[in-house]
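DM from R.C. (forwarded with permission)

"hey, sorry to bug you on a friday — could you get me a structure for this? deadline for the figure draft is monday and I only need the backbone to look sensible"
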Amino acid sequence: MKKQIALSEHFDYKKLFRFTFPSVIMMIFTSIYGVVDGLFVSNIVGKDEFTAVNFIMPVLMILGSVGFMFGAGGSALVSKTLGEGRRDKANSLFSLLVYVSAAVGVILAALGYALMPVLASALGADGELLENSVRYGRVVVLAMPMFMLQMEFQTLFITAEKPRLGLAATVASGVINMVLDALFMAVFHWGLVGAAAATALSQVIGGIIPLVYFFRKNTSLLRLGKTNLDLRAIGRTCANGSSEFVSQGSMSLVNMMYNSQLIKYAGSDGVAAYGVMMYVNLVFLAIFIGYSIGTAPIIGYNYGAQNTDELKSLRKKSTVIILSASVLMLAASQLLAAPLARIFVGYDEGLSDLTVRGFRIFSLLFLFAGVNIFGSSMFTALNNGLISAIISFLRTLVFQIAAVQILPLFWKVDGIWASVVAAEFLSCVITIIFIIAKKRKYKY
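My reply, with the result:
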């Protein structure tokens, strides 16, 4: 069995791949079991229900993005504290952030359940779409506290130097989701409620496994235990992790706007086609997100230890890895556009053709997204939540809103598909400017 890699070690390419590989697979697997959800709903339950899932999903992701905020911001603070040699303090902060995020999750679940009809209606749903959206959303939102913990622990497992355990917990959650999808929809014929129940139960498993591990005596750097209320630490975590909250929350808001524009220009088929693209997009971007999550604790630790040589090495190696992956991802997405469309919506030729054309335009974003995701994550790890939030805010909200409002005026539906490409390109320019501008300050 290979020796566990410590955050304090020097990372060559081989060691960097070994350490980040579980995080990449973890994020890919998380995305894939979301894709399986979509496949079952689309092919077994129906196109209308598939549209409803895609319609209400942004609301659920906005609520769940609080977990991303606590995970990214908390990981940066805890890893920096570990790098400073204060392990007891790091454990106290770790425990505090887990307890607070769980409590916030309970509150959000109650509010989400009560307000789901209002939220779906405000987004423009009515009739059958409204009923289906509320039916699905209310079941899934009940698991919100566990979903938030699952998202949070994905990063904190890496900070604890246990990325493989994080992967194992995610795989367990994903396998349960897939099995329950098949059981509830294909065998029991529970329809949309079955899809929602499978998702919610898998999230409960994904949240409980890490809690059990960290509450018990373990061999990682972190353990859940006693803590003290530290409002300043909570504030720093929220501020520093705000980029992830902004990124996830804004993405969900923008998805709502895309759905609105697609209904206007392409009808419900446009929403369904966009849903397919987003499922595939999640899997591809999971590679960038997983790598960024995996490297963030290393960057945070070396920043806390003031090891500038290692920071420079990490930044250079990450640039090579991200740019290489970007080119490969674009090539793969162009080749796979038609086969993927057939898997999801092959039963409807017109919808399939719309999906293929859209995805071939949409997938150009992979050339730029990796730089943006890693750049934002790097600044979070360096405890500069402001720059990270600016990058995320411009990338996922400002540029996309402007593009999706303007480009369809010239190119109609094609303009909607091109909007995210334009937003990623503009964000890439901003990200590179920030990386160059702050090079002297952080000595990377």
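R.C.: lifesaver. The chain has one domain: 13-442.
me: no worries. Residues 13-442 form one domain.
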